[in-house]
Design goal:
Elements (H helix, E strand, L loop, with lengths): L1 H9 L3 E8 L2 E7 L10 E8 L6 E9 L3 E3 L11 E9 L2 E2 L3 E2 L5 H4 L6 E6 L4 E6 L2 E5 L5 E3 L7 E8 L7 E7 L3 E4 L7 E10 L4 E2 L6 E4 L1
Antiparallel strand pairs: 1-2, 2-5, 3-4, 3-6, 6-7, 6-8, 9-10, 10-15, 11-12, 13-14, 13-16, 16-17, 16-18
Length: 214
């Protein structure tokens, strides 16, 4: 009995946590500390905070992987959720390991906008596209993140003659098309952008660089 109790503790999943980008939400965990734990299988449940019953996630029931997609199960983005995971090995089941509370609207990481750059001889036109959520309209198009947040775009210009870190903020606001004037011909300019949520005081990472020579 003692051995199975030890095994039970040593295969218990560690570090159960939600990761979420633009409401694409997964539950992650690490295997228990026993060396055998790499052969364990995992079972995932979730619930809304305040509910008494846990729901099984059927696609993540007896799986060898250490990640489970809960995007669909956490689509009520204002609600707080919990996830929990248990492991089984050699007929022994661990106790459940609980995540901390996760509220999608508050905690999802918002991605950068998609950036397209068109240049004329002395100006650059920057087109911005908000990141998409995984959720769809009835007609099937994906709902963008501007639906859920008051998003601002921050556009930075990098003059390639200068240091990479020398990014100048040239625009902050809601426009999807921005024109940057009075630039020097023959100079290589790069544009990066971020999304910014004033209400949460949070910025995305930088978009990938779009460069052009006038």
């Amino acid at each position: 009995l003692l051995e199975s109790q030890d095994l039970q503790d040593s295969i218990k999943p560690q570090k159960v946590e939600f990761h979420s980008l633009n409401f694409n939400t997964t539950l992650h965990w690490q295997p228990g500390w026993a060396r055998e734990a790499r052969d364990a299988l995992y079972f995932v449940q979730y619930k809304v905070y305040g509910q008494s019953t846990w729901q099984n996630k059927d696609d993540c029931w007896g799986i060898p992987s250490h990640v489970c997609d809960l995007t669909h199960e956490t689509s009520d983005i204002q609600e707080p959720y919990y996830g929990r995971v248990r492991a089984t090995l050699a007929g022994v089941y661990s106790n459940w390991s609980l995540s901390s509370r996760f509220t999608p609207w508050r905690e999802t990481v918002i991605g950068p906008p998609m950036v397209t750059v068109v240049h004329s001889n002395k100006s650059i036109t920057v087109k911005l596209q908000a990141p998409h959520s995984p959720y769809k309209r009835k007609r099937g198009s994906k709902i963008t993140m501007t639906n859920y947040y008051d998003l601002l775009y921050q556009v930075f210009i990098i003059n390639n003659l200068l240091d990479e870190q020398y990014r100048v903020l040239v625009y902050e606001g809601k426009d999807k098309v921005i024109k940057i004037q009075d630039l020097r011909p023959g100079v290589s300019y790069c544009i990066v952008a971020k999304t910014y949520v004033p209400m949460l005081d949070r910025s995305s990472a930088y978009s990938s660089r779009q460069c052009t020579v006038l």
